[in-house]
Amino acid sequence: MNAIDARHVELTYADGTEAVRDVSLEIPEGEFFGFLGANGAGKTTTIKVLVTLLQPTSGSVAVNGHDVEAEPRAVRESIGYMAQETSIDGELTARENVRFACEAYGVSADDRAERIDDLLELVDLADVADKQAKDFSGGMKKRLDVATALVHEPPIVFLDEPTTGLDPKARNRLWEYFERINERGTTVFLTTQYLEEADHLCDRLSVIRDGEIVASGAPDELKARVGGAVLDIEFADADDATLERAREVAEDAAVFDDAEVEVTDDGLSVRSASARRNGTDLLVALNAAGFAVTGFNVRDPTLDDVFLAITGDGLDDEAAAEVAE
Ligand code: ATP
Question: What's this model's pTM, rounded to 2 decimal places?
């Protein structure tokens, strides 16, 4: 049985916004699944359908074997959900917040004390268990949110952009807890706008754009589909006009016939099947054209390159379709 089985889900809001169009997902038990997309792509709407907060306009969804429309209660009892907005009460202590969640989820009185200690330990808040949550940092509040979503030991947990707005240190720390939760056997459904986060955590991911899934696979598979290598080039004078001229030279230089050239913050990023073999020829051509190259590096594609390829920003439609297959 799949932990999540969504078939041809569509969700149109009352004002006619088609937020989700024909989304199908099959997520096996125990998987760490990532749902990656830009602001407004449809991630939260999809999660809300999966956790029974919105009824799909069409299509069907089973979570833990329960149909979201026919058995919403059974679905809710078998999932943990960490929404984008915090659900903790600042006036309560960390322990009281978790206790409150235990009561709300009907955790038996006998199990509560141990469960609360375990969860506060899991998210490293045991030391501040009796402090009011309003004094916590953003990262600590998110960790407390994670703990409250897990009180009933759900086999699946949904995390909606859990690290948005956190500094890198707090984000890295949360990643550790998510990994721990997944290692305990919990299926994790995570939405994120951060490619690095998806790459670091997820066994498999789908990319959603304008309400539709445009690519799915393991992070390494998606990168392999982009193919080739990427040559990053830095210039001494990285003003917009210089970079634009450099881009034209790189595109016209007959070094690669398949090059995709992007302007970056301080230079160019050139992706090609032969970037490793012929990269130096391009550097020579740029030098000959009067550009002061101050650094370069050839690397494998990252999820960023996958994203660029999929969103068509830098690849033609045919190539984007190939990546998305
Ligand atoms: P974010 O990262 O901003 O949360 P998201 O990928 O989660 O983005 P959604 O919140 O699912 O995206 O929004 C998808 C689309 O639906 C957007 O165009 C959004 O403006 C629209 N939308 C969201 N909620 C509603 C609503 N209640 N009524 C009408 N349109 C909505």
Answer: 0.81
Q: Which ligand 1 atom is nearest residue 37's CA?
A: 6
SS (H, E, C) 129-186: CCCEHHHCCHHHHHHHHHHHHCCCCCCEEEEECCCCCCCHHHHHHHHHHHHHHHHCCC
Q: Taking residues 50-78, report their average pLDDT.
A: 96
State which of 9, 10, 11, 13 you would mutate to test the pocket of ligand 1, scoring each by most atoms of that ligand within 8 A of its C-beta: 13
Report CA(48)–ligand 1 centroid distance (Å). Answer: 11
Of 287, 285, 282, 292, nearest in space to 236 by CA: 292
Where are the chain's structural domains? Answer: 2-218, 228-300
According to CATH, what is the number of the domain 2-218?
Answer: 3.40.50.300
Q: Is 228-300 the same fold as 2-218?
A: no
CATH topology of domain 228-300: Alpha-Beta Plaits (3.30.70)
Q: Does residue 58 line the site of ligand 1, with CB under 6 A?
A: no
Contact 143, 123 (CB under 8 A): yes
Q: Which pLDDT tens digit goes with each residue over 258-288?
A: 778 889 888 999 888 888 888 888 899 999 9
Is the CB of 17 within 6 Å of ligand 1?
A: yes
Query: Which atom of ligand 1 lies closest to the CA of 15?
Result: 29
pLDDT single digits (tens) 286-310:
999 999 999 999 988 887 777 777 7
CA of 177 to the centre of ligand 1 (A): 27
